[in-house]
Recover the amino acids of this structure.
């Protein structure tokens, strides 16, 4: 497969949504790449510098924690955009052969596309095994290809169900444990003139993909050791079952179809327009940062495990999560690997991350700590949601096989979800259309589809 085709397959990352980043200015000399403009303060000016692109909200504190505790290396941090804009800049640097940072923050579902271009360093030769024990098997699988490791996990998104206690109590409903119970509860609320029980936003294709995986779907199977071949099964029966289920909820008027992460969606959460929110462990931080849970609705939210298809055989799935990877343009790959392994891995940074709900940490040292495990989450009215819901979900997560063109796939799934919500196609029809689109796309990029 030629590199031009590979680049085309991955460059769809520019389609991803963005949040504004920030920039800054202290200068520092370096033996590494692109460390002339640093947002942060360099504490030990004589130490070699490693450039980092990252967008975590508390990254300034994380970088300061690292630099203050290291005399052998200093981090020069820059925000190059969040998600899509950063990926687009990275893609440009890959094609130009220059301009990439030494270490880059990447979401786990974006790793494969950049691995395929030889843009990321295999960290197994730089001591990745030293930190493997700090992570669950699932989160480690997400950053690995065979014996190779291409990033260090930091945060994740084990999925669960957030719900309004006031709404469920009003209609005499217990948190549903299965998707069948979820539909029954939704119908009961509708029949009583209540609000939408949930929401199928078209702009959360990664979440919908995770829900397909929960039913047993394996949308993509791809092995970097066999670069030209990929399996695509978006029209499998489990995938159709999930899409048909949600299409049915929409058709019956049991769930809304509002795009999430919008002003309208947030106002709906505040106003009790939705009884549940199927989301990830990072959702409380996103919601509180948007003003949810701070007014009259304070104390009304709670969390429950993700409803299951088979309560006797629960399956945990993940939505979101970011990593630190070393780019092949790094000036000193070994030193950059030390930064990737050590950045956002110290107790102070991890504690700040989870206490401010900036991240859901994947580091087992945090997940096993009394402070995190027994934390009475204020957003959930003092519920110990970490211990009861999110930690068990994370530890049970088995990992996922991502495609080399995740963002292009997400764009197509989003388009099909729009059709579902408009009543133009059934869930099964959407799955069939999606299969055809992605098979044709993969072939056009030089892949052999099995």
């Amino acid at each position: 497969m030629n590199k031009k085709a590979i680049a085309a397959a991955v460059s769809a990352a520019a389609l991803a949504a963005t949040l504004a980043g920030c920039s800054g200015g202290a200068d520092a000399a370096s033996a590494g790449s692109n460390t002339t403009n640093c947002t942060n303060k360099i504490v030990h000016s004589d130490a070699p510098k490693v450039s980092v692109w990252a967008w975590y909200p508390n990254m300034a504190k994380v970088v300061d924690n690292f630099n203050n505790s290291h005399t052998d290396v200093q981090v020069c941090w820059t925000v190059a955009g969040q998600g899509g804009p950063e990926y687009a800049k990275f893609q440009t640097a890959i094609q130009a052969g220059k301009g990439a940072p030494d270490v880059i923050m990447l979401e786990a579902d974006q790793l494969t596309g950049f691995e395929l271009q030889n843009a990321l360093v295999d960290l197994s030769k730089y001591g990745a095994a030293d930190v493997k024990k700090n992570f669950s098997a699932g989160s480690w699988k997400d950053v690995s290809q065979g014996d190779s490791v291409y990033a260090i996990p930091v945060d994740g998104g084990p999925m669960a169900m957030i719900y309004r206690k006031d709404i469920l109590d009003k209609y005499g409903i217990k948190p549903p444990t299965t998707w069948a119970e979820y539909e029954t509860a939704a119908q009961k609320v509708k029949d009583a003139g209540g609000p939408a029980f949930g929401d199928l936003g078209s702009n959360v294709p990664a979440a919908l993909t995770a829900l397909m995986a929960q039913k047993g779907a394996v949308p993509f199977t791809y092995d970097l050791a066999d670069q030209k071949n990929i399996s695509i099964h978006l029209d499998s029966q489990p995938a159709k079952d999930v899409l048909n289920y949600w299409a049915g909820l929409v058709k019956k008027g049991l769930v809304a179809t509002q795009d999430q992460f919008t002003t309208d969606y947030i106002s709906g959460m505040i106003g009790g327009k939705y009884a549940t929110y199927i989301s990830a462990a990072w959702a409380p931080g996103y919601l509180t940062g948007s003003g949810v849970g701070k007014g009259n609705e304070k104390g009304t939210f709670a969390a429950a495990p993700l409803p299951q298809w088979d309560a006797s055989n629960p399956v945990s799935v993940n939505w979101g999560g970011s990593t630190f990877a070393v780019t092949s343009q790094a000036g000193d790959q070994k030193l950059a690997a030390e930064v990737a392994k050590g950045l956002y891995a110290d107790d102070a940074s991890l504690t700040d991350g989870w206490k401010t709900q900036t991240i859901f940490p994947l580091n087992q040292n945090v997940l096993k700590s009394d402070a995190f495990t027994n934390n009475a989450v204020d957003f959930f009215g003092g519920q110990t949601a970490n211990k009861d819901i999110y930690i068990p979900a994370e530890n049970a997560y088995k990992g996922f096989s991502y495609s080399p063109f995740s963002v292009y796939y997400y764009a197509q799934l989003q388009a099909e979800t729009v059709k579902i919500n408009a009543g133009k196609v059934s869930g099964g029809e959407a799955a069939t259309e999606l299969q055809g689109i992605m098979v044709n796309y993969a072939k056009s990029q030089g892949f052999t589809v099995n």
User: Anything to note?
Assistant: The first helix runs from residue 3 to 10. The CA atoms of residues 176 and 182 lie 5 Å apart. The chain has two domains: 3-155+322-376, 159-317+405-449.
